[in-house]
Design goal:
The chain is α/β, with parallel strands linked by helices. Helix content is 29%, strand content 26%.
Length: 118
């Protein structure tokens, strides 16, 4: 049950429903998770600065159980996600930052309980 949070100073018009579906598919594939388990939030139009510049940029956070817990896994995920974001948004790699967070099943609630019991 991965959580994808994309924050950007790009306008909302860059993030259509089609983009959201493509982002869902790309991140699900990168993480080896089914699309119906993905959760995405996109926050456009934010005041942002990366590496001293307010030029268009993205900060993407990936939180998941069992697939973001090692450097080797995250290196593979990062390459795939960067390829998608640079291609879809026309940003260079130096304008994108990805943060990976490893979640434990007891940290994710669903259906009135936590994933540990589902």
């Amino acid at each position: 049950m991965p959580f994808i949070d994309l924050e950007s100073n790009l306008p909302a018009s860059k993030f259509s429903d089609d983009f959201l579906k493509k982002l869902c598919s790309a991140t699900a594939t990168a993480l080896g998770k089914p699309e119906d388990r993905m959760n995405l939030v996109v926050k456009p139009g934010l005041p942002m600065l990366i590496a001293g510049s307010c030029s268009p940029c993205v900060v993407l956070s990936v939180s998941a159980i069992g697939v973001t817990d090692t450097a080797d896994k995250n290196k593979e995920h990062s390459a795939k996600i960067f390829q998608f974001l640079t291609g879809e948004l026309g940003l260079s790699e130096d304008r994108i930052v990805i943060q990976f967070y490893a979640l434990e099943p007891h940290q994710v609630g669903k259906k009135g309980t936590v994933m540990s019991f589902l």
